[in-house]
Design a protein that fits this description.
4 copies of one chain form a homotetramer. The first copy, chain A, has 362 residues and is α+β, with helices and mostly antiparallel strands. Chain A has one domain: Chorismate synthase, AroC fold (4-Layer Sandwich), CATH 3.60.150.10. In chain A, the strands form 6 sheets. Chain A has a 5-stranded antiparallel sheet, with helices on one face. Chain A has a 4-stranded antiparallel sheet with strand order 8-9-15-10, with helices on one face. In chain A, a hairpin with a 2-residue loop joins strand 5 and strand 6. In chain A, helix 3 packs across helix 8 and helix 6 packs antiparallel against helix 8. Chains in contact: A-B, A-C, A-D, B-C, B-D, C-D. The interface between A and B is large, with 120 and 120 residues. Chains A, B, C, D: Its cofactor is FMNH2. Chains A, B, C, D: It catalyses: 5-O-(1-carboxyvinyl)-3-phosphoshikimate = chorismate + phosphate. Chains A, B, C, D: Its EC number is 4.2.3.5. Chains A, B, C, D: InterPro entries: Chorismate_synth (IPR000453), Chorismate_synth_AroC_sf (IPR035904), Chorismate_synthase_CS (IPR020541).
């Protein structure tokens, strides 16, 4: 598979630069018969979009999805589904100044070394604009997972800089621009972000995702483990520097008697494993977490070099997020959904003949 | 690619169960002309082996590698290299008791759900015995990386339960059975492990790996990013629950002005990124870290159910590691080497024509 | 890789239905720096297009290629190149009559069985309209092969029904609407096709392709052999029923002393092998041939059944080619170019270190 | 996937050189629960083996298959099945003479150019000995196809040099060493082969294969078409120069009214298509055919060059088949079975939800 494609049987190929004419993708391997129409993309694209609050980038993209193929009379046909999203609010002149230099913390330097040429406008292919297509593809995966298996994939912001939630309520998550699970803290977050923006700096974040309803058996040992593919999926998102499944790094300090999840007739007694053992789902909720680094595009000058090898100071103007993790929640959900759908299809390919042979645990 | 294969151009396919007749693998895509002989496997297999100190499992495997193909007169020929390792010290009777039950924290339950059948002897395919083949394949990758690119991949134990290194010295790492980078702490670690073993419990660990000499440009955006593939590689190792690149989760609490690595004429001023930006290597050392959960095979009884659905207590006898993370260092190194070699080959496929066009930074 | 993608390192993913809003594709893995602009697609798309003579379908498509990504300031950047072609002359009403029935010799019946749903308009995804994108992707491959390796890929019509060329001249091929290599026969071909069209019937054809300038060494044994991939590439073209490399089926009746190509100091003495031995190119011209069946869409009624299971007679109206093989020459060339470029990239990934060690033969 | 692997979900990876210590392979993706034991390999390996009559090579290999993994208590477990076959009758000294030269018609020249190194003993990796593993893997695929879907895959020799069958009887095929479908001609074939052997020359052959019981719906448009994958599978077999599906090249001279298979209530009226339309199976028997070139290893001297670039005469001693096509029948069957099983698994991954919606035709 090429490196702009993701997934083995449910394969998403994306294309497009931040300031090119369009971004888009081809979703291949979707089973036939799934109801699909453009309106279905609106909710998650809106959740991911910039410009919806003062706490994110002020670029305003229409994010209108045109379905070019693979759907007939409102249902998928089993043929590739092409999605096209025109770029409508690119301001490439913001980037003229940095075309000859390398912004610290950005992919400018590495793209140049790899390819010897790069599209400097808005970060080109390395821009988080590409994740719009992931979210759109994730909408298809979420729809199939929900309809066929009753799976629900939901995420929330679990840390913003030093701040952590002091309570948890799924209801709250969708009612504030931070995907924060505790409503009472929202004013505090707003003040925190306002101060950050004024300082011209940025901050990191942690996003947690929970997938409920995944049956036991999904995941392919030993290199296509469900957790290994989730790790790749989340680490492939721009700015992610760490991934955890279940207890993650906290497991380092735990004892085996504490970490291992015991089984009783009515189910597991705990979920330290995050719903995955030996790379295969246990039937418990899948728990994954991603660490987002602070945005490198900040107003505080940074030292760098230009393409002639001279020392320069870089100030990143453009329109940027002071915390990329905020809008990342739907992206993380989408990547988890893509992995789950792919594994679901792979599972039935190989294991369709296996009945329910193990004792069911609630 | 099937899920028992790893890598796109340098592809390793492994096979074998813990207590089956043999384990082994096929290494496909190794360039021709690389010197290779069985003795080259000894060092890393010895480092990974059980039974070398009282702090690991007491299973004694010969781990003798037979090269079945792909090498002619001491050099690789470009054809697939098959490696065979006979199992010589399997004690399957230890497992008779658990053939009808599901050990908590193990893959027994999930394999049964997925496949409807499982080889219970020694954990079958889910056993860490499989990682022997990864280490052997990693030897080939390390040899090619060193010879062709001067790359060196080294790991060490960065945390054992609550204990963290109080100093750092690469020399120390290979001189104690823990791969611990600070010699003065070794007696403390021995006492810690002795006490743990007596308690019948186990503990988690963190392994860090550093790859030096990787040139800028390796890694394929956007789904074949170097960090994404490292994440999958490390998370695919038995018992790993978390992966970090560079600062990892610490980045969540950082500011952009702190995290971003600035560039000067003599190089980067820091390496928070862990040597990867936009999924592509920067030329700095690659830094990766993996969290290992505490072994689930402990002497303390755990609650479970059997295949008839009755509640049972499980005590895992067999011969197990009280801390799987200890022997994991060469496994982590091997997986990093496999990813790097694969990316190196992919890089020259697409970018062989790109000269050294960017300003070199020391 | 998904089944709407072709190629391992130079990967082409196509999408689109004959009468949907658009067709297109994503070309991933093209090395950076290749000059590319929309005008480069005109020549080959014009050669493949319908409606250029009375001997092909009278559908008139603009076949205007929009490059959506992967090109910056006239050069490829190494990121995915998305190509979009809007459908402009679809007459779906022609197909209303056959929405409930299965045209003999078409994919209607099989798509319905596979997917349970199908887009009946113009054959949907099974239409040869999809090959437009193959030709566009082939333009990129041809350009790279020519520029980087001096490779030239050319095809011609080698048989039309019972007619075979009575002479051979590359110059003639591009000067008649049949890609026929002997100019003197063109009037005969025109009469032949006129008579065929009047009869409401169709006829088969054979297309030969020659790739010159391929260096020795391309092709990967044993399942990625150059000839095996050419066979898959050509057989994947609509209506192809047979593929030959070199002497092909004629080799069945040959003796070894006749077939094997001997080597002398100034090169091979013959090319029965078609430029491939053991799945690897020899340095001689690559010779491949494809058999096209006669179009199934003819005016002569055919017996079939409808979706309710009743017997019906089918007359295919629409606008169809009386010989699909005629326009197939650029499609065959494109597929050969895609295979060669992919193998060229794969070769340098694995064998870049191999110098010119074998004795050169002119 | 690497080029020593075949298949997307049912993946066979082979390894081994003709005169190395062993050949073998890893079969990954076999569904769990299939009965499998070493004795099941005997029949097809015996059919493929050399030395069973005077008309094939006189190398006598035991071809004993050791199952190293993936089977527990006589059933597949869903984990990779490793197969090992030791080489027991390699006579490498026969090849000393040709280590420095390139045999005409062989892969010596091309392997040398590609890899810069080659194992000259017995043709190394390019030897047809590799096909032993294909046949073994094919046994697994045939067993699953028969048990799960009632599919039967059978082949026969359809042409030997100039000779064609004058009658057809499946019973006859397995009762003569030629897989010839007309018993009365066997004495003629024996005389033909005896004369050929005496002349020191070799001859080509055609093998046909028929797969019965394949349900409609297998095959993935547009690049994973069933016929495209069959073409790759057959063309990947040593010495194959052409592949046909259904009428193959005969379709070139046919009219559409003749070629298209009409449908009636009791089924198709003909099978010119060979059971495949639009790349998807129709439910009719799959018909495929492969052309084998005459062996290049003959006693008649051939001109060549050596590695120093001097002109030489080559006489191939060793032990060779005067017609490789004779023993190829089980190899062709195996490759067809591998393709069908892979497509069957892929079909149920994507289309498991599709019921029997189309009108059934007997």
């Amino acid at each position: 598979m090429s490196s702009n494609s993701f997934g083995k049987l449910f394969t998403v190929t994306t294309f497009g630069e931040s300031h090119g004419p369009a971004i888009g993708g081809v979703v291949d391997g979707c089973p036939p018969g799934l109801p699909l129409e453009p309106a279905m993309f609106l909710h998650d694209l809106e959740r991911r979009a910039t410009g919806r609050s003062r706490h994110t980038s002020q670029r305003h993209e229409a994010d209108e999805v045109e379905i070019l193929s693979g759907v007939y009379e409102g249902r998928t046909t089993g043929t590739p589904i092409a999605l096209l999203i025109r770029n409508t609010d690119a301001r490439s002149k913001d980037y003229a100044a940095i075309a000859q230099t390398f912004r610290p913390g950005h992919a400018d330097y590495t793209y140049w070394h790899k390819y010897g040429i790069r599209d400097p406008r808005g970060g080109g292919r390395a821009s988080a604009r590409e994740t719009t297509v992931r979210v759109a593809a994730g909408v298809i995966a979420k729809a199939w997972l929900a309809r066929r298996h009753g799976v629900r994939v939901r995420g929330y912001l679990a840390q913003l800089g030093e701040l952590v939630p002091k309570g948890f309520d799924w209801e709250a998550v969708e009612q504030n621009p931070f995907f924060w699970p505790h409503a009472a803290q929202v004013p505090e977050l707003e003040r925190y972000m306002d101060a950050l923006r004024k300082s011209g700096d940025s901050v990191g974040a942690r996003v947690n995702v929970v997938a409920e309803g995944v049956p036991p058996g999904w995941g392919e040992p030993v290199y296509g483990k469900l957790d290994a593919e989730l790790a790749a999926a989340l680490m492939s998102i721009n700015a992610v520097k760490g991934v955890e499944i279940g207890d993650g790094f906290a497991a380092v300090g735990q004892r085996g008697s504490e970490h291992r999840d015991e089984l009783q007739m009515d189910g597991f007694t705990s979920n330290h494993a995050g719903g995955i053992l030996g790379g295969i789902s246990t039937g418990q909720p899948i728990l994954a977490s991603a660490a987002f680094k602070p945005t490198s595009s900040i107003l505080i000058p940074g030292r760098s070099v230009d393409m002639e090898g001279h020392a320069v100071d870089v100030v990143t103007k453009g329109r940027h997020d002071p915390c990329v993790g905020i809008r990342a929640t739907p992206i993380v959900e989408a990547m988890v959904a893509l992995v789950l759908m792919d594994q679901a299809l792979r599972h039935r390919a190989q294991c369709a003949d296996v009945g329910d042979m193990a004792p069911r645990i609630a």
